[in-house]
Amino acid sequence: MEVDDFEAKTNHFLSWLAFQGVVLSPKMALVDLRSSGRGRGVVATGDFESDELIFSVPRSAVLNLNTVFFGSSSVSDLEFKIRNLASWLALTAIILDESRRQDSKWAPYLAILPRQLHNLTFWSDAELSELQASKVVSKIGKSGAEEFFSRSLAPLGLTDYNIEECHKVASIIMSYAFDIPEENTTVDEKSGDEGEELVSDDEEDEKILLSMIPLADMLNADADRNNARLCCGNKDFEMRSIKNIAAGEEIFNDYGQLPRSDLLRRYGYVSETYALYDVAEIITQEMLSLFMSKEAFQGLNLSPLSQGQLDSRVELAEREGIFDDSYDLSHPGPERPSIPDELLALLYLVLLDDQSLKALYDSDGLPSRSKLATEVVGQVLVTVIQLREKEYATSLEEDETLLSTGNLPHRIAMAVQVRLGEKAVLRAAIKEATTFTGSNKRMRLGGKNNLVGEGKGKRSIEEPTGPKKKGRFR
User: Fold this and answer.
1) Residue 137 burial by CB count (10 A; 0-12/13-18/19+): exposed, middle or buried?
2) Backbone dihedral angles phi then psi of residue 55, each to the nearest 5 degrees
3) What 8-state DSSP symbol labels residue 408?
């Protein structure tokens, strides 16, 4: 029986892992999941108890700057240039260089990395247009990455250098790489819970190293079925079970609470199990510009703000630590509302009459959420969110009909799922906003404005003594 190339590469990789000192539990297997629309995955062939070792990878088998250049007696010109690049560019350069070396230690590993990617970087303009008004399109950063490639990688003199391959490698890094602590920067894993730190991909630690961890990156992710985590020590990285895993179950290492838009952008797929984490983004400047218009809030008896009045309110929002370039609406849950406190507070400040705004300058912080959620704030939010929903070319109901047909091209179907999820969030936020019943006593209704902060006579905000904490809600 002929063994296909996919299986041959898997077997070669498994042999390479053993040679590199990777220890595999006899109760796990690396399997072919192409029949379910995926590549490879790790499956339990026997029962695992919670906190049982699934596999361990020594640091010497992790692909990063230190392991590639380990043992060199002197720093080559290439190494010097690469070490001075940003971490993701340095790892991109390393993988490009190693993939061209016939004697590369990493060849069996590089051979099983995906060749076809569905990250948004590789979508055509027509495919991207199917995302409609989703703000994820503005986060792709393809042209910016190409500038980095041309400025930083081209001078390295890599053989057969081309932009398309750089995009592929950089996207693989974004999808597969981990930020790991440098050796000797973590507590020994034998000293208790503090030593078994979950490997981070948040780049919050000072001494971290962007790395590819063979086999650890073969685990798929599922928000509902996460059953393993990667722990690090000074010598090895261990994938351990976090709950009992029965024989036949797939082993998952979750990405965290990512919306499907980010799943698609970073990893090239979507999953219904992540629908709970979908968000819809409100761009602050787009929203604030509505308050200078006479037409935006017709029927609410709101007079438009001058630029000076708007600036005064933004200044106070910045002082209170609640101003941001954008705000994410989300599905409401036990621990969070659909509309974030910071957005609610910003709208409250914008809608305050000028006398109340002046009083708030010298106050001890913002009111509680229940007082921020005035009836008119809710009405304004409904208008803002409805306008946001109208930016999409199709309705939520039309998208549901499209998906129900089941015959959409793969990328189009994923785009529809993303935009449908965002519209569902917008509907949930509208529903929440309609429940606001707080008093409108301090709101600038019926032309109630005293023009504080108007024009050149704008009142400056005096900073109170002592530091201010972000979101100082009473």
Assistant:
1) middle
2) -165, 160
3) -
Which residues have CB under 8 Å from 397's CB, separation 6+? none
Model confidence at 2, in pLDDT bands (50, 70, 90)?
A: very low
pLDDT tens per residue, range 364-398: 789 999 999 999 999 999 999 999 999 999 999 99
Total residue count of the chain as it appears in this document = 474
Domains and CATH numbers, the chain: 5-267 (3.90.1410.10), 278-457 (3.90.1420.10)
DSSP string, 288-339: HHGGG-SSTTTTTT-PPPPHHHHHHHHHHHHHTT---SEEEEE--BTTB-SS
37 pLDDT band, cuts 50/70/90, is confident
Residue 399 gets the label, from left (phi > 0), alpha (psi -120 to 50) or beta, of alpha
Separation CA 338–CA 372 (nearest Å): 15
Q: Which residues contact 292 (CB under 8 A, 6 or more apart)?
A: 304, 305, 306, 307, 310
Nearest to 349 by CA among 330, 327, 374, 379: 374
pTM of the model: 0.85
Mention every residue, 6+ apart, whose C-beta is less than 8 A from residue 460: none
Give the per-residue pLDDT at 188. Answer: 35
* Beta bridge mates, 211: 178
**Site of tokens 């290439």:** 78
Task: Count Cβ atoms below 10 Å from residue 2 Cβ, excluding itself.
Answer: 5
Q: Which residues pair with 438 in a beta bridge?
A: 374
What are the residue ranges of helices labelled H in 41-154? 65-68, 77-83, 87-98, 107-110, 125-129, 142-148
Cα 356 to its chain centre, rounded Å, is 38
